[in-house]
Amino acid sequence: MASITKRPTRLSDGRDLIYYDDADTTLGAERKPDLREPAPRPATATMRQDPLTGEWVSIAAARQNRVMLPPAELDPLAPATPSNPSEIPDLYDVAVFENKSPSFGPLLVDDNAPEGLDDLARVGLGRTRTSVGRCEVVCFSPATAGSFGSLSPSRARTVIEAWADRTTELSALPGVRQVFPFENRGEAIGVTLHHPHGQIYAYPYITPRTTALIRSLDAYGPTLFPDLLERERASERVVLAGEHWTAYVPFAARWPIEIHVLPHRHVADIAETNAAERDELATLYLRVLRGVDALYDTPTPYIAAWHQAPVGVRRDEIRLMLQLTSPRRGADKLKFLAGSESAMGAWVGDIPPEQAAAALRDAVARADRDNPVGDLPVSVTGLVTGPVVAPAGTASPSDREADR
């Protein structure tokens, strides 16, 4: 059986770049170096605490300078060319690199970093902490347009392996409390690049959504996720089900399009899934996304969010879950978060979840007929690490790691 190959290296300014070669890749092992002049990285942002909620807000002013919807020939995520010295110096299948203008990091340790969860939980006026952590960009393909749903099953499987590998690596970094892979798709969501890509945030705190989930676990009990899955699988809200995963519209859906995907076995994060679960996810998730796009004549904007258990907290109770949401409530209508939702966090749903699930099942069936996913060309056993061959006069990735 074939394996996906991981090839770590560095960009000219020292940021990590990791290539993930498909199990059926046509690429060779060597990669060109980043020949750009090293540019200074922005200072790590600072978090400020909102004393009304206790939540932390990262003030990352350097993000104001990020590229905004460039033409395809200047795509910063495409393989570099003489006229486009992009972030990725060579052709790739999947590539992950540290964000140039991160919301968290690059510092992982600092004198004003959070001192622990108890420190973060205290509420006061004018409290600040350094926004330690890591933000990474996950490039799904060298193509300059598309999204996860436009990938082949083999490439989707590579992205899933990259998510799992990065979750493991980022969870081990000092100060990281939670790892969050996600994809923003569509200008209506706020994307600044058309390139098919996602991101991974490694937060220095447990996010507000997960904190609310922990409160629900405290109120309901440790069987919340298995009980929820059993109830949803018996409902008319199931969109698609496999041996290892079920996709459904939740009972109390907030968004016009909202799909949750849960594994049948308890896993705290995507790194804990096995090869069979990842293989099935690659095709089931593609079918879900192509179904979402079959609802209307134009691509649907969405946020695809992988909710994972925090590092070292309630991992035997909090289950990995994908939550895909879209504000699209019609072919030419969007749901805007106005007074009640934005100001008070009090949601009003526009479409009954059972009606939305029926429409999605029909859309998945149409997509299966008109744009079938097909089977994976290979069964993937996992990940192997193959070193990038460094050009003459350049330090190898392992040598640079020693100087880090």
TrEMBL record:
Which keywords does this Swiss-Prot/TrEMBL entry list?
A: Carbohydrate metabolism, Galactose metabolism, Metal-binding, Nucleotidyltransferase, Transferase, Zinc
Skewed-composition ranges (Basic and acidic residues): 29-39
Instruction: Give the EC number(s) listed in the UniProt record.
Output: 2.7.7.12
Taking every annotated instance into account, which residue ranges of this chain make up the domain Galactose-1-phosphate uridyl transferase C-terminal?
223-361
Write out the GO MF terms. Answer: UDP-glucose:hexose-1-phosphate uridylyltransferase activity; zinc ion binding
Q: Which residues form the Galactose-1-phosphate uridyl transferase N-terminal domain?
A: 48-206
Q: Name one GO cellular component term.
A: cytoplasm
Keyword check for Transferase, yes or no. yes
Q: Quote the catalytic activity from the record.
A: alpha-D-galactose 1-phosphate + UDP-alpha-D-glucose = alpha-D-glucose 1-phosphate + UDP-alpha-D-galactose
PROSITE patterns found in the cross-reference section:
GAL_P_UDP_TRANSF_I
Pathway in which the depicted protein is active: Carbohydrate metabolism; galactose metabolism
Q: Where is the region Disordered?
A: 24-52
Q: What is this protein called?
A: Galactose-1-phosphate uridylyltransferase
What taxonomic classification does the UniProt entry list for its organism?
Bacteria, Bacillati, Actinomycetota, Actinomycetes, Micrococcales
